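step=encode ok
step=design start
structure_in=
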């Protein structure tokens, strides 16, 4: 971390400067004969002022502040320690300095000094570093909620050992550090309805799906067919729209769709954090079965002009990237209505074999989901009740108990 010195003179130091200046002026211009004690005091003041300036100029030249554990991962509720190394490679010691660290309130320092309205957590530590040495400050904290916490600010107050007051150093630039809090992976285990990815139910009995790379022929266009499936050459020849017929495949791929918008307002659903905790457990179960899956949320990412997503994960090694993605999703952000989001998925995303969507539905959402059911896609709904089978024809199928 880099720091800038905010220079400020204390009132006592300013008073001594004025006194020393007056004595020097009287001695030079008025040939005043100063008492030997005044001369001694003047010499002490001038020496202290000179040493103080020398200390201020050189104490920062060889001061290095680094975060040792710059990437930390926790589950919600776990405790951790932020380790900061302070090294003084020069000859100027730092005695009883004060380090103040401010971070996002996704974590909470044990000695929290921040106001709640600031949505930050702040704490202070005292340290001493002698010349040519270093020390490590350990700041304990608790992972308070899902998200990513950064050190947004830090300040160092160093006492002037040859003068009065303190030197105030302020952080410039970012700390290049993050503390990521995963959703609680144990939350789903406490629900009355539990679910399990059953190999026979999901892979064997429902394994035939369209492969768009293998075209067998054409048929008459139906209302629910995608425009991408229309064979335009054959349609022009026949005089009416014709859709392609694809070969069937046993390849299984899941698509998880996260709804970050509530039913009637732009705010997130009240149970969104519980949904993230359920997704944390669910994706872990999918990873164990080595099922390929992708996750998309109806949150716009302005840097890419698309939606927040993580693609084609498979196996236990994919579990950490998913947890990190769930941690980074912001609930208070620019989102798209879920029915419009489903329409985008229908038109532009690769057709999966299974879809899991979160939250509740309404008439517009049901209409979009009907398209996927028409294509033979198995759909599951993840809500407060757990994981349930979605579909008017099949009815509601409860999740399989563990």
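sequence_out=
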């Amino acid at each position: 971390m880099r720091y800038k010195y905010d220079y400020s003179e204390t009132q006592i130091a300013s008073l001594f400067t004025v006194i020393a200046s007056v004595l020097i002026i009287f001695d030079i211009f008025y040939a005043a004969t100063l008492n030997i004690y005044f001369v001694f005091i003047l010499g002490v003041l001038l020496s202290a002022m000179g040493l103080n300036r020398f200390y201020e100029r050189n104490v920062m030249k060889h001061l290095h502040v680094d975060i040792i554990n710059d990437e930390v991962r926790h589950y919600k509720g776990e405790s951790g320690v932020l380790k900061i190394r302070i090294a003084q490679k020069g000859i100027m010691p730092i005695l009883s300095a004060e380090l103040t660290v401010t971070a996002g309130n996704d974590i909470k320092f044990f000695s929290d000094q921040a106001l709640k309205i600031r949505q930050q957590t702040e704490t202070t530590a005292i340290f001493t570093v002698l010349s040519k040495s270093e020390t490590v400050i350990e700041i304990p904290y608790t992972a308070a909620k899902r998200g990513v916490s950064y050190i947004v600010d830090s300040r160092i107050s160093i006492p002037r050992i040859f003068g009065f007051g303190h030197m105030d150093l302020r952080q410039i630039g970012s700390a290049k550090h993050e503390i990521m809090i995963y959703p609680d992976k144990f939350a789903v285990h406490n629900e009355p309805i539990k679910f399990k990815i059953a190999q026979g139910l999901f892979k064997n009995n429902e394994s035939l799906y369209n492969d768009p790379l293998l075209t067998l022929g054409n048929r008459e266009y139906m209302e629910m067919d995608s425009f991408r499936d229309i064979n335009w050459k054959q349609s022009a020849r026949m005089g009416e729209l014709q859709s392609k017929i694809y070969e069937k495949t046993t390849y299984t791929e899941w698509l998880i769709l996260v709804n970050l918008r509530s039913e009637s307002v732009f705010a997130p659903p009240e149970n969104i954090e519980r949904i993230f905790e359920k997704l944390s457990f669910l994706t872990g179960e999918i990873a164990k079965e080595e099922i390929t899956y992708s996750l998309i949320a109806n949150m716009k990412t302005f840097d890419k002009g698309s939606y927040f997503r993580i693609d084609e994960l498979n196996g236990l090694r994919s579990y950490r990237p998913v947890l990190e993605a769930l941690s980074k999703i912001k609930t208070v952000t620019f989102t798209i209505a879920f029915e419009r989001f489903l329409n985008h998925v229908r038109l532009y995303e690769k057709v999966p074999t299974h879809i899991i969507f979160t939250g509740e539905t309404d008439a517009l959402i049901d209409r979009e989901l009907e398209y996927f059911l028409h294509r033979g896609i198995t759909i599951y709904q993840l809500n407060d009740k757990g994981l349930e089978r979605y579909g008017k024809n099949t009815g509601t199928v409860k999740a399989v108990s563990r």
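step=design ok
step=annotate ok -> The first strand starts at residue 2 and ends at 6.
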